[in-house]
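Example 3.2
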Amino acid sequence: MKKLFAIVIMILSVLIFIPVKAASGQAYYIATTPGEDLATSINVSWHSDITDAVVEYTVATDTTYANKTIVAGTCRPFSKAASEGGYLSEGFAQRNVCYATLSDLIPNTHYMYRVGKTTFSSNHTFNTAVSSTSFSFVHITDPQYGSLSQASIFNGLMTSAYAINPDIGFTLFTGDIVDRGGKENYWDYFYQQSNVAKTVVATVPGNHEYYDASPSPQTYDGSYYNAFFRNPQNGPEANLNTSYYFRYNNALFIMINSESKNQTANTAWFTEVMEANLDVDFVICAMHRSFYGSTYASDSVNVRNLWLKLFDRYGVDLVLSGHDHVYARSYKMYNNQISNDPIRGTTYIIGGSGGPKFYGAQPNPEYAKIVEQTACANIITIDQSKISIQLINAAGTSLDTYAIAKKRIGTVDENFTKETFLASITTSLLSKSSAKVTWPESGYHQVANMQVISKKYGFAVADTHLYNESFTEMIFTGILQNALNEYIIRVKFADGTTVDIDYVIDNRVPDPIDYVTITEALDLMIEELMLQFGKVFE
């Protein structure tokens, strides 16, 4: 009996460590990812052993695909050697990575699709954005799939989320979906047990997506992640597909690759995206590394150095992250301080863990709420006036609720003209060293930014992004005494055009020698005038 038991244990131990064989065929590892506007476009990605598989899609009620639309896929070859430059990979035999974009979709419509050529996949479904009403999505982070049992934790959270809100539009992951990006069988677990067949998934990579298959993982690059997700190609060239943005109704989602070594490209691109999307009501950013970290608080220093001023300037409403394996919601923060200002400040959320791995929370004065040692997910609902957040566990129990009021408020002036706006800009000195620039409320939605730039130093001494109509002035200091202070008032309009206005504050005190020179000049003028008058009298 003992011998039989030992044999069973041996067999089980071998089975446990046998990697799951990846699917093969005309279409596998199928994912539905956002288009640039989720009301009208969706991306579909898949792996294939052929290059000419297609996507057939139709409305979900058309169960026989009688009115289907066919979209051809675009493919590239993909494989990973077991060892490459000292980095290890497991699986990833030769195949094709393919994608297709479904465009001109009808808003507020339930669609289904399948992928293949002669043999098709099972049906996948998604909903396009619901115009002008509220919508919900699920935020989850760090499931770190390393087994089917770990993957089932995420499924339990999703089941509870859908039971609470059946109309969830998409799922947003903030990284560490798999435990090792370099192990294909971990990705296989994701596609087996992630409900990816019935929802759109918006993702950013975490550090674990960059890890190879080494026993002590090494940080590789984004190629593992890029093989599994096709995102909008509207990000910076250096981080294409891993940083991107999309819109869902009145909200802008900016997905930021915090693992990239080229963060300068990210910040420059972020500025462009914000200034090109003035008409949204809410801005949500997502990244893996947290802004006010707990376990990885030291990582957060670099994150704040990169993003603090930008998030403050552009009035980001909510930042979703992961990495720390603890749920932590900050107070509303502005200039790295707790803010009670209704229109200034950002809420930062570390989403906890969507898997079995937890860390304890470290004390942090920025935290308004902490939940430890619990697998959890956020159900986030956005309507016309607020963002509502509900944190749940796998049983569907509510662990935290919070609301963020809309701060992009104002009336768009339909009679706005650039000429009238420019003519209405005024300046005034407040003291010997400070001044103020003011402009009318009509700049809301018509003007992106107002800046005062020092010609001497070449940088902005005042900078305002007009996301609220009450932003009608900016004050700057540092005006030099006994000097000619030359500035540019730069107006950047919503259409991208820029107008520069010279602004000079002359604080020079004349030199005593100049007084003598001026006196002498006046004496000469008087003498000349007297001579001229004398000639007239003669």
